[in-house]
User: Fold (2Fe-2S)-binding protein from Bradyrhizobium frederickii.
Amino acid sequence: MQISFTLNGRPTTVDVAPATLVAELLREQLNLTGTHIGCDTSQCGACVVHLDGLPVKSCTLLAPALDGATLLTIEGLQGAPGSNLMHPMQEAFREHHGLQCGFCTPGMLMTAVALAAEKPDLTEADVRHGLEGNICRCTGYQNIVVSVMAGAAAMNAAKGE
Assistant:
């Protein structure tokens, strides 16, 4: 079947089998490999993307659900339009050492951006609760929490400009 959607700000039309998962479509058909597949059971969060502005786990979402929708992947996450800058959350993860091996990082970033957009004045408890669906096996989470809080503050500051 043919589906049309907006992918990282660009109109996209693809042919997919009805049983194709969004993660498979992104990685295997569209060559967008930033969305990682860690568990195939919706437990780890490495595959989080934004569907119509909401974070979803792409390893359990069927591609036909994208028809007419807007999808944002880690490849589409960016700083100010027209700039070559990283998104404030990406910059915060870099600055505060919120990653180690990097496997969980795309999903963490996508979840964190949605979390910060939903609740700009995040507390540590908010961040820890909001990241419950994302697993990191390397960092011990403390630097991720610090990074998300710094990224949320930077996103707020960017809105005020």
Q: What stands out?
A: The beta strands are 2-7, 10-15, 48-51, 54-57, 70-72.
